[in-house]
Specification:
The structure holds two protein chains of two kinds. By secondary structure, chain A is an alpha/beta fold. Chain A is about 25% helix and about 15% strand. In chain A, the strands form two sheets. In chain A, strands 2-1-3-5-4 form a five-stranded mixed beta sheet, covered by helices on one side. In chain A, strands 6-7 form a two-stranded parallel ribbon. In chain A, helix 1 crosses helix 2. By secondary structure, chain B is mostly helical. Classes of the chains: A alpha/beta, B mainly alpha. At the A-B interface, strand 4 and helix 2 of A face strand 1 of B.
C-alpha cells in the first residue's frame, strides 16, 4: 500500500529502514554509519526522511547474504556482483542485499559500503541504472572519497523527478 | 579510479594485452611491416567471436551491481 500504483516510487516521504544482519569484516557501528550516510545522500536532495528501526518490519530492509539466497538472484563470491536491490514496484520492494563474501569497508580497501549502499538504495527508491559514468547509479563500481562524495546532476535530477526537491522548510 | 580487487587484475591484463595487438599507438604502427599488419587484421576477424566473449568476461569480473538493466 506504500507503493504508488503504476509509478516506480514510494507514495510517502517518511521511510523506515532496518539493518537485518552484518558482514564479517566491519563493525556494526561502521555499517550503521555507512547506511545512514547512504540514505542521507538521497534525503539531502529530496523531501524524503529516513528513520532507522531496530526490530519489526521496515520499508527498506538491508541485509548481507552469500551465494544463492532464495530470491532468484544468487551472489557470486568475492568480486563481480556486489549487491542488488528491488525497485518499489517489484515483488520485493525495499529489499536491499549485499554480497557477504565481499571485503566491505568504510575506506578505500575492498569495497566501500557507503558507495555501494548509496547505489542500491537508489534502486530501492525507484532509480534504474544510469549510462552516465559520473552517476552513482552507473552499474559498475568506482571508488570516490566518501568524505567528498556528491551526487551527480543526473542523479539529483532523476531522484527529484520521483520525489520532488527538498523544500527550505525541510532543511533542519 | 576504479578499484578492482587484486584477483581481477589478471583478467584485465589479459584483455589489455589482447587489445594491444590491434590498437597500436601511432608510434608503433609504422614499425610493422605490411605483412604483419595484414596478419593482425586477419587474426582480428578470425577472433571476432572470441573478442565478444572476452568483453563479456571482463564485464562479469568487474565489480558491479546485480540488478539487470531495464528490469523491475
Amino acid at each position: 500500500t506504500s507503493i504508488s500504483p503504476g509509478r516506480c516510487k514510494w507514495n510517502k516521504h517518511t521511510l523506515t529502514y532496518r539493518i537485518i544482519n552484518y558482514p564479517h569484516d566491519m563493525k556494526p557501528s561502521a555499517v550503521k554509519d555507512s547506511i545512514y550516510n547512504a540514505v542521507s545522500i538521497w534525503s539531502n536532495v529530496t523531501p524524503l526522511i529516513f528513520q532507522q528501526v531496530q526490530n519489526g518490519d521496515a520499508d527498506i530492509k538491508v541485509s548481507f547474504w552469500q551465494w544463492a539466497h532464495e530470491d532468484g538472484w544468487p551472489f557470486d563470491g568475492p568480486g563481480g556482483i556486489l549487491g542488488h536491490a528491488f525497485l518499489p514496484n517489484s515483488g520485493n520492494p525495499g529489499v536491499v542485499h549485499f554480497d557477504k563474501n565481499e571485503h566491505w569497508s568504510a575506506s578505500d580497501t575492498g569495497y566501500n559500503l557507503f558507495l555501494v549502499a548509496t547505489h542500491e538504495i537508489g534502486h530501492s527508491l525507484g532509480l534504474q541504472h544510469s549510462g552516465n559514468q559520473s552517476s552513482i547509479m552507473y552499474p559498475t563500481y568506482w571508488y570516490h572519497d566518501p568524505r567528498t562524495f556528491q551526487l551527480s546532476a543526473d542523479d539529483i535530477q532523476r531522484i527529484q523527478h520521483l520525489y520532488g526537491e527538498k523544500c527550505s522548510s525541510d532543511i533542519p | 579510479v576504479p578499484v578492482p580487487p587484486a584477483a581481477d587484475h589478471k583478467g584485465w591484463d589479459f584483455v589489455e594485452g589482447y587489445f594491444h595487438q590491434f590498437f597500436l599507438t601511432k608510434k608503433e604502427s609504422p614499425l610493422l611491416t605490411q605483412e604483419t599488419q595484414t596478419q593482425l587484421l586477419q587474426q582480428f576477424h578470425r577472433n571476432g567471436t572470441d573478442l565478444l566473449d572476452m568483453q563479456m568476461h571482463a564485464l562479469l569480473h568487474q565489480p558491479h551491481c546485480g540488478v539487470p538493466d531495464g528490469s523491475d
